[in-house]
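Incident review: delayed structure delivery

Summary: a single-chain prediction request sat in the queue longer than the usual turnaround. Root cause was a stuck worker, restarted by the on-call engineer. No data loss occurred. The affected request and its eventual output are reproduced below so the record is complete for anyone auditing the incident later.

Affected input:
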Amino acid sequence: MYLLVALALTLLALLFAHDINRAAHQATGPRRSENRSFGQMVSLLAAEQNSFDSHLYYLLGHGDTLTRPVFAARLSQLAQELEGWRSEAVLLRSPVLAHHVNDQVAAITEQRVDDYQNLLSTIAARLNLPWTPAPSGSQFVSEPAQSLVQTVQQWDLARWSLAREPGQVVLPALGMGAAKYYIARGITQLVDSPTLALIRGIGIAAVEVQPAPLPAPAGTLLMPPVPSVQLGVSVRNVAYVEQPVTLHVTFSSAGALQSQTMSVRLGPMQSYAFVPRALNTAPSERATLTISVVGAAAGDHMTTTRTYQVEMSPSGNG
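Output delivered after worker restart:
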């Protein structure tokens, strides 16, 4: 009997505590505070999104005046901002507010991150810019600009959800200037820009020979009587694009033909030093050394082929 009474009292106490907590949460004061805190957080997020929109709008309209590296850097800076929005959206999901507005705002923001990531990737692909794919988990959006317009429309409905709730919070509006510009004009202006045009170019920047050649006319390598010669070939990519490059080395003499092929992918405006295997040589040998790189046309004031006449000195043993 006493056990039943104790259980009944415990149950009543738990129910009473639950009702007190629920009442406190539903009270006007706490709800007003939660709504206003939420409004402040969303205002900051909306300011970030509107600033992003204005910068992208400017880039779409005036990017044709920039060089490829500068345009790519600004596009990349915009892309780096997006993941921060996703983190902020997660924080908005609790506590649960009236009409589940926090879930709506968070979902809209996450969708806009995907939309912008796809839009920036599309721009980079059209201009053949080096670009890091969007983080895993982001969804592909076939019409990102159209989706951005739709999310603004969804936001316009959700932002009034707390207008009649305690605190009377009205969330700020979102801009969609960049999305509308993209829908109306696309990026033809950027694609046709001479300063953003992709002009591939590679070239042999330097050739190092070990041991060091003896003094000789240009185009001739007068070598001491050594059993092998080591080459180092520096190749440069002069375009702002990732570029595959293949090096061919041939050493042709009366005795034999030695050939080597090596490949690498060069990043934008980067150089790479190839180090082929040592070439076997013999005293008094005469040979032709041809070094060539393929993958793109020669850059300005550069060459993709160098040919040397190799003359090995006598051994000196009488």
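Verification: Residues 28-62 form the longest helix (35 residues).
Action items: add queue-age alerting; document worker restart procedure.
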